[in-house]
Every structure is written in structure tokens, then in C-alpha cells.
Amino acid sequence: MKKLLFAALAAGFTLSAWAEYPEKPVTIVVPFAAGGPTDKVARDLGEALRKELKQPVIIENVGGAGGTLGAAKVAKAAPDGYTLLLYHIGMATSPALYRNLPYKTLDDFEYLGLINEVPMTLIGRSTLPANNFTELKAWIEANKGKVNLANAGLGAASHLCGLLFQQALKVDMTTVPYKGTAPAMTDLLGGQVDIMCDQTTNTTSQIESGKVKAFAVTTTKRLPAPPALAKLPTLDESGLKGFNVSIWHGLYAPKGTPKAVTDKLNTALRAALKDPEFLKREEALGAVVVTDGRLAPAEHKKFVSDEINKWGPAIKAAGQYAD
Ligand code: ASP
């Protein structure tokens, strides 16, 4: 009886202790460099969340090792709702890529809901002699062993896309890892690297201004808009049958964050994803905001688990690992 009374009091205390959450700024860790696609999603979402949570939302960039350094930081952070993680498909690809991932993807986080899905584009430096995918393929074949492919490190979306691209072409390229595709883009613009796959959220304006060449989109269907992307063929129709990569982003808290807090965050996320300003920005960059059941934490977690099973075999077949 005494025990029961204590448990009831403790539960009451826990609830009331978190009733005022958030009482100070909330930090979202972005596991890539500032100015890149994940960072852009986080900053736009952070602005929409700020309106819901009535507290500033701070973005902290912790780039490196394909996003796993930032994810590890959040896995070990205090489970109090003040440190969150916004990570993309790397959440599901890194378990197959890292022998010693410093966290357990499915056990060390509270899943707060999926945010959006973003297609990728295959782009190249503006000085490449190729002007379409057929010419690019011929150029790659003629330059075997010399082609540089930029990415944001093992486990990043650009890495996954580049890996599948090399597998499909049966050509090995020299991969050049960065802390995010923002610094990779700087080098692509400067002509230091040759090609890269990246989310439309990072590539659209560079394609529109002609600063990079765009060769294809990575989804199985062509994109409806904007015009610079809509005219691009898919890799699938360009001969790489079945090529299909679409990048999703999700929000996470450290395991053990109180349910009262994760419920508040999930409610705030659902409202933020309906924010007209946020929707407008996402649409302009080719991103599709999630509206389905994956907004529920349990379904978000199941989706990530399914993605781990989907990508694992393809990654293992490529034989790329890091410790
Ligand atoms: N687009 C990057 C990637 O390759 C990540 C980033 O810089 O946001 O996964």
C-alpha cells in the first residue's frame, strides 16, 4: 500500500514537474555542417516549432562521420527535452556501415515523428564536358579511376546515393568526404570535385543559376516542379533500372525523455508541419512534408526499422565499413 502511494505521488510529481516544459530554449542538433540540406530543414522547422513551443529553438551543427557524431551526442544527452536530434536516412544506413556505432539506433532514442521526404539530384561541376546523363556516363567510363565523388561521409544520404550509383555503373570512384554537403558544394562550385548526389533542398538554386550541371533525379518518377528540376530525367529511365533514393528526415530525443515531454514535442511537430510558412519553403525546395501515420512515434520507429532492413543488404554488398 505504502509502495502504491509512493508510486502515485512520484507519477504526479513527474507530470507536474514537466507541465511547464519548455521553460528555456530547446536545442536541435543537426549532425551536418551549417548551410546544407539537413541544416535548412532544421532551421525552417525550428522557426515553426518556436511558434508552438513559445521558446527559442537553437540549431547546433555537429558534423562528421556521416551524421553519427551528432546522433551520438544526442543519445548521450540529458533526457529532458532540451536536446533533440534532426537526422535523415543516415539513421537507418549507418547501422550497416559502422562496426562500432556509438549508440543503438532503435534503443537509445525516443522517436518523435517523421518530418519530410526529399528527392536527390545527381549534379556535377559546371566545367564538366558532359551536358546530359548519357554524356556523363561516357565521361565517367573514359575517366575510370580519376573521377571524384563528393559526399558528407559514410552514412550520409550523399554517400548512400553515390554508393548505389557506383554499384549501378560498376565503376569505382574516389569518394571525398566532408562534414556536410554545404562544404562539399563549395568545392564542387570551385571545381575541386567532379560530381555529387544531394537533396534538392541544397541543389535547386545552384541548378537554376547554372552554377552546377544537373543530370538526373534519384526518384522513380520525374519531379513536378520547379522547372529546372522537372525537366531532369530519372536515373531509372536513364538506364539504371530500379534506382530509387528519397531522403527522409525525422526528429528524435534521448531515450528516457518523459512521456509528458515527448507528447508535447509530437503535438508541436504536427502543428509545425502545418505551418503555412514552413510548407511554402518546403514546397519551393522540392520537399514533401509527411502527413501520414509516420507522424506517430511508434510508426516512425517502425519505418526506421524497416529502412534498416531495406538498406542493410545493399550496403553490405558494397563492402564499405568504418569502425
Ligand atoms: N546532404 C547531406 C548528406 O549527404 C547532409 C547535409 O549536409 O545536410 O547526407
Structural account:
The chain is α/β, with parallel strands linked by helices and 323 residues long. The protein has two domains: 23-118 and 247-318, 3-Layer(aba) Sandwich (D-Maltodextrin-Binding Protein, domain 2), CATH 3.40.190; 119-230, D-Maltodextrin-Binding Protein, domain 2, CATH 3.40.190. The chain is 43% helix and 19% strand. Strands 1, 2, 3, 4, 5, 6, 7, 8, 9 and 10 form a ten-stranded mixed β-sheet that branches. Helix 2 links the parallel strand 1 (26-30) and strand 2. Helix 2 (37-53) crosses helix 10. The termini are far apart. Bound molecules: aspartic acid.
SSE inventory with pairings:
Layout: H1 2-18, E1 26-30, H2 37-53, E2 57-61, H3 68-75, E3 83-87, H4 90-97, E4 109-125, H5 133-142, E5 148-151, H6 157-169, E6 174-177, H7 181-189, E7 195-199, H8 200-208, E8 212-217, H9 227-230, E9 246-254, H10 259-272, H11 276-284, E10 288-289, H12 297-318
Parallel strand pairs: 1-2, 1-3, 5-6, 5-7
Antiparallel strand pairs: 3-9, 4-7, 4-8, 4-9, 4-10
Helix pairs in contact: 2-10, 2-11, 4-12
This protein binds aspartic acid (ASP).
- Name of the CATH architecture of the largest domain: 3-Layer(aba) Sandwich
Q: Quick one: biggest sheet? A: 10 strands, mixed
Domain module count = 2
Shape: globular
Helix content: 40-55%
Q: What is the overall pLDDT average?
A: 92
**Looking at this structure, what is the CATH superfamily of the largest domain?**
Bordetella uptake gene, domain 1
Radius of gyration in whole Å, from Cα?
21 Å
Order of helices and strands: HEHEHEHEHEHEHEHEHEHHEH
